[in-house]
Amino acid sequence: MNGRKLHDRLYLGLGLSARHIGQSADAFRPKGPFRPLDKQNRFLRLPATFVSAKGNDGRTNVYGEVLWHGIFDASYTRPGDYLVLETGIYFVASQVPLLPVLCVGTNRTISVARPNMQTGTATNSYGGYTSNSSLTLMEGWPASVLGENKSSAPVVNLPADQTVPYWNVLVPAPAGITLSPGDLINDDLGRTAVIAGSELTDLGWRLSAKMATT
Q: Collapsing DSSP states into helix, strand and coil, what is residue 199?
């Protein structure tokens, strides 16, 4: 049996398993950097379930673990696709033949914008960032947003100041979009963070962001 036939049989077997233990999921394929879960991006409905990527040992994921193995017929999906279930939203991070489909569980919806610096000091005394002059890079993307195990002190460093937390963000990488330090992340809770580090990996964007404070 050649590799392609084995690959197809494996995905078929996963699909049959998902029919028995899975939930109905809507699959979405982003067609650009904006609103990937719009109705026009839905291309498939299929049964799916997810188990801990730490190993199929009968336990659920614990706090801080966002990686899951997807059990579904992956013949029609590819990295970057979203699967939307009643219990959660996942995106496909890696889909390598003969290996489990690696997915990321999401908990927030984010948008990313690139602010423009106001440099006309002769006519504008403010030389910082302004929200009305920013360029939206991504809008409405479900992502994994977790607190990173580090923080920093505010610049002013007053006695009553609190440390500034960092986020660890995982999100698919839309074609043609580059995220850089200094870009702003806004989430569905109304919070804002500034990207401190951005890494484009085979699994999508991995971002470290410093939460903005006022």
A: strand
Number of neighbours of residue 15 by Cβ within 10 angstroms: 19
The closest alpha carbon to 209, from 190, 195, 198, belongs to 195
* pLDDT (tens digit per residue) in 142-151: 999 999 866 5
**Half-sphere exposure for 201 (CA within 13 Å, toward CB):** 13
Q: Tokens standing for 53? A: 């990527």
CA separation for the pair 46, 70 (Å, rounded) = 12
Locate 41 and state its tokens: 């991006």
Characterise 176 by phi-psi region: left (phi > 0), alpha (psi -120 to 50), beta (else).
left
d(CA 147, CA 162): 15
25 within 8 A of 72, measured Cβ to Cβ: yes
Q: Quote the strand ranges of 81-128, DSSP E.
A: 82-85, 88-94, 101-105, 108-117
Longest dimension (CA), the chain: 73
Task: Characterise 76 by phi-psi region: left (phi > 0), alpha (psi -120 to 50), beta (else).
Answer: alpha
Residue 34 DSSP label: B
List where CATH 2.40.10.370 sits in the chain: 108-211
Q: Tens digits of per-residue pLDDT, 5-62?
A: 544 555 554 545 445 456 899 999 999 999 999 999 999 999 999 988 876 555 566 6
Nearest CA to 207 out of 153, 160, 137, 159 is that of: 137
Q: Which architecture, in CATH terms, is 108-211?
A: Beta Barrel (2.40)
What is the rounded CA–CA span in Å between residue 22 and residue 24?
7
